[in-house]
What we know:
Shape: globular
Oligomer: single chain
Structural class: alpha/beta
Number of helices: 12
Order of helices and strands: EEHHEEHHHHHHEEHEEHEEHEEH
Number of strands: 12
Amino acid sequence: MLRATIPLGRVAGIRIGAHWSALVTLGLFIYLLGRSLAGTDGNPVAVWLVAAGGAVGLFISLLSHELAHSIVARRSGTRVDVVVLWLLGGVSELGDEPKDPRSDLRIALAGPLTSFVLSLALFGVADVVAALISGPVPAMLGWLGAMNLILAVFNLLPGAPLDGGRVLRALVWRRTGDRLRAATVAARSGRFLGLSLLILGGAELLLVGAGGGLWLMLLGWFLYSAANIELSTAGLRHRLGIIRVRDVMTEHPLSVPATWSVADLLRSQLAHTAHRAFPVIDSAGRPIGELGWSDLTALPVAARETTAVRSLARPLPPAARVSGDELLSTVASHVVLRPDFDVITAIDSHGRLIGVVTATDLTLAVQRSALGLPTRRPEQYRPPNSEL
């Protein structure tokens, strides 16, 4: 999961953000496009301004691609958390999975179709502008059209996490009725595709010496790694089955009021428990952050009385604030649970804290499920025919 470090607002009610690595890609495309436009008529300043406009236009195209996924997902009843632009493009982070193969297919195709339409439109505009003026602008528009076409075609390659992998998953799911099998087929295809790009990029780098080989290798590494994660997630979904958050959560958990100072926390009963990570709550009992002992260690002793817990708490990701009725497998696939560091918070209809799930709880649930044991926490489970 990518964290958006640069908020960009909302479009159609969907949060938009950018990871800091997107700035690297923006600078790289300005440089590459500026060099390719250097041979066109026009002064150098105009060329570089047009190159900057083209690079920004590419990111707008990437955003349009991802927004198409997100808008179709919302209309299909799938929750969308955020769209994030990053080093290798963009990603739509869905809060849950498509409910049926038809929705899965529609969501997957929305992005490439949008990029294809943009490509045709930009090629058309480039031809019109070229008939009216010369210089770098028509060339930049043609480049944008070509990049959108490449974006559409590349994303349709049949391997997860690309859109083509989603299409493959939807088709296998529709044919077999087995969602796990479909996700596994798409993920394995993505691993093969990623490995192929790694090999092709390495060969290009060694034999031709072209910098494009490094880009192919980076893409291949990303696809291979992401496909491995999807394969692991598919296995996790299978093992957890229909277990819900409330089945494994710790009810009425210990929490830290945001108004406490660090000294208040260290003087409280929480300091004498075995817990290592805690939810931080506001005055209404709503979780707003998470805090581990490791978050406090760098604070000087003299500052403990005057430093509020709120200032040290890490923001709670939206995906880590869930209903107790949500499937644990869905939640776990969208949240990174680091031992002794992160928590999933279960909330009631008013947003108030009712339970937490830690990495230990998740591991225990997987292990007990694999053994055919009840998935409720052992201390909550009473064997049949036991005496009071």
